[in-house]
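Extended Data, panel c. Modelled sequence:
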Amino acid sequence: MEALDPDRKLRVATVITRFNGGAGNVALNGALALDPDRYERAVITGGVGMDSATADGSDGSGQDVLHGEEAVKNAAAGDLTPRAYEAGMEITQVRPLVPQISPRDDMAALRTLTAVLAEGRYDVVHTHSAKGGVIGRIAAARAGVPRIVHTWHGFPFNEFQSRLRRSVYVRLERMAAKHTDAFLAIGSETVTTALRLGLTTPDRVRLSWPAVDVSAFEAAASSGARARARRRLDLPLGVKVVGSVGRLQFQKGPEIFVRALAELPDDVFGLWVGGGPMTSELEKLTTKLGLTDRMRWLGHRDDVPELLPAFDVMAMASRWEGLPCVLVEAIAAGIPLVATAVPSNQDLVLAGETGMLVPPQDPHGLAVAAAALLDEPVAAARMAERARGRVGDWFTPAHLGTVLDETYRGTSTRPFQR
């Protein structure tokens, strides 16, 4: 395949199941960084799913496709669709494209998305997330889209699944990879895994990084930010705070986090920013562990940059990751890090140098590492300062915009042409 005309304005559609969290922010920041004189930008996102919809996963609208203001109004809490719409992007919501596995909805999503992409006459379709990535790439190939790009933010298959489930996910990824002209892989371990499993050829993959606008987090770390953040959260004077940011789901290990908190002294408070399907379960576990006075589940918040300075330590309990944006955000805010030793956290968290690494699914290990940083604030601050040296221009939206421009107009070719 020849490269797309470097002088022609291209229509690009970003396809993502949930337009929120780390993957959503990377997708949005990349789209915002594209030169509007060279690109027409569209976002195609999934339905709200069962987390916030009716029992059958429907949004109650009776329509499979929503456009513009209707799609924005139907977005789930915390969705980035309003920001994209305000920036002048075309917005489409494909209701059957929900996060939950559902053969009926998945086939409907494939049919509907194929029609949407064909009607949109896009030059490039760029998919994100596991399910949106598989269905989106197959739909784009069926719609005859000239160039198909996918970002791996990590993989949906991991060591915590059954062998059968993992093998099914790998086969699905291999199938979708045949319809992909180019890949961006967040984190070095993601690239390594993709090449080792034969999901791509070397000419089709490029290492990428979480694109974070760190200015807000750096500004929030200014003098007096810690006191302001703690007043905002109404925290008692003198307490130490271990915090985390992420969706309340199995991948992020929030129950591991709260079990680790139970091993820390009574003057240590736990904060978790983010909502999700495990909220009720975690509230019950908090009560069972006797932590209701010092563990706060804050739910979704739009003021994360202002809250991070309240943390003495950022503790991530994830079972698997790509390379989460929240690590970059915490580093920009000057917060010492504890993270699980999973791909690709080690790109930023060098054990004992820029933070501390612990085994996944190990509340005791997480507690020991957090306690070490709390008890040695000088050493913790030194690690936080070294971590800042790991975050350079590669992590900026501007750099990602350059990468996207080069990738969208590249010459690598998918193995299977319809």
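The two ends are 13 Å apart (CA to CA). This feature is highlighted in the accompanying rendering.
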